[in-house]
Amino acid sequence: MSRGASFDWPGLMRTGMRDLGLKPHEFWALTPAELWLLLGPEAGEMPMGRGRLDQLAADYPDRVADEGASYG
Fold this sequence. Notes:
Layout: H1 9-19, H2 24-29, H3 32-39, H4 50-59
């Protein structure tokens, strides 16, 4: 998936609920990897591999919280 591209949520939901028979809460409880496995080989390559995950981590690094900050 290229930068700025978006998921076809309506298409994925339609496929999950109509074609796979999932209930909405079952669809939303799936991880992307689980959904990909359920869709089968015709779904193509998994959209986010390790390289994309590494790129996201580099683009959006975790921030260390300030020691004096309070949360909650």
